[in-house]
């Protein structure tokens, strides 16, 4: 068994989490023109965790490779990942196509083989489609163990295993698995560092491999789902104040809540 870690970190370019999405005029999706984009927050946590693992196990981590599958502007978030500590990166240009999780997982499977990675750390979901599928699908395609919703990750160098504390309903669950492994990150795993200006400048000199869908001949990128309509959620009606518990009970009875 190889005594080194080669970490692959997929990152996605999404509308910034601080922006309130707006439905486009056609009602077919979210308006993307003139909107700020940034790295998916869960993927930002994944980058941070990969860097922290290297800081803790300096001799163990051979390489941290970031990959983004998206339009040309996705290179911006790859440069951010490089500035935060990734060593190399790859951009798979899919123009403006919106790939579904299965297609993304198939591309990542080939990237794992290309980079000879034995640990994949990625966000549990992206905040645009909230599918929460890619990590699980990738683990299935690779036939690797998976540790999802990670709140803590510990690497045992001697046995080349990972101990992962997962967030579950009502508490936490700790699992242990040998490498290779797929880990998906939850919000409380860590607090990502900022990419400083000097590091962003240095990142421009780091290797960025440019690929396209044609480099992944076995991947069928045709969508299996069709979005019929996107609309705003209904406006919530205003609440009312009650003066006593008895009045509260009466109001609840009126709406048949009790």
TrEMBL record:
Compartments, as annotated in UniProt: Mitochondrion matrix
UniProt superkingdom: Eukaryota
Keyword Electron transport: yes
Residues that span the membrane, as ranges: none
The Electron transfer flavoprotein alpha/beta-subunit N-terminal domain, residue ranges: 27-220
Leader sequence residues: none
GO cellular component terms listed in the entry, alphabetical order: mitochondrial matrix
Keyword Electron transport assigned: yes
GO BP term (any one): amino acid catabolic process
Keyword entries, A-Z: Electron transport, Mitochondrion, Transport
Entry GO MF terms: electron transfer activity
Cofactor note: Binds 1 AMP per subunit.
Cofactors demanded by this protein: AMP; FAD
Cross-referenced SMART domains: ETF
PANTHER family: ELECTRON TRANSFER FLAVOPROTEIN BETA-SUBUNIT, ELECTRON TRANSFER FLAVOPROTEIN SUBUNIT BETA
Protein family according to the UniProt entry: Belongs to the ETF beta-subunit/FixA family.
Function, in words: The electron transfer flavoprotein serves as a specific electron acceptor for several dehydrogenases, including five acyl-CoA dehydrogenases, glutaryl-CoA and sarcosine dehydrogenase. It transfers the electrons to the main mitochondrial respiratory chain via ETF-ubiquinone oxidoreductase (ETF dehydrogenase).
Assembly mode: Heterodimer of an alpha and a beta subunit.
UniProt protein name: Probable electron transfer flavoprotein subunit beta
Native source species: Lachancea thermotolerans (strain ATCC 56472 / CBS 6340 / NRRL Y-8284)
């Amino acid at each position: 068994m190889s005594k080194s870690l080669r970490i692959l970190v997929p990152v996605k370019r999404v509308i910034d989490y601080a922006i309130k999405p707006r439905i486009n005029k056609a009602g077919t999706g979210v308006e993307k023109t003139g909107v700020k984009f940034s790295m998916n927050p869960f993927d930002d946590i994944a980058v941070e965790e990969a860097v922290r693992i290297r800081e803790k196990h300096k001799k163990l981590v051979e390489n941290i490779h970031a990959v983004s599958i998206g339009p040309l502007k996705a290179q911006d978030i790859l440069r951010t990942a490089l500035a935060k500590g990734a060593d190399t990166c790859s951009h798979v240009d899919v123009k403006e196509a919106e790939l579904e999780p299965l297609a993304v997982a198939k591309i990542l499977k080939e990237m794992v083989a290309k980079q000879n990675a034995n640990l994949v750390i990625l966000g549990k979901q992206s905040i645009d489609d909230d599918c929460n599928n890619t990590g699980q699908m990738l683990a299935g395609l690779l036939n690797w163990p998976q540790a999802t919703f990670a709140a803590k990750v510990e690497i045992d160098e001697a046995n080349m295993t990972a101990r992962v504390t997962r967030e579950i309903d009502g508490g936490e669950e700790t699992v242990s698995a040998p490498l290779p492994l797929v880990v998906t990150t939850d919000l409380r795993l860590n607090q990502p560092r900022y990419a400083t200006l000097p590091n962003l400048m240095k990142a421009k000199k780091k290797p960025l491999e440019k690929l396209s869908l044609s480099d992944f001949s076995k991947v069928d990128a045709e969508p299996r789902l069709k979005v019929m309509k996107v609309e705003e959620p209904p406006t919530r009606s205003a609440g009312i104040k009650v003066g006593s518990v008895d009045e509260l009970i009466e109001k609840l009875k009126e709406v048949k809540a009790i």
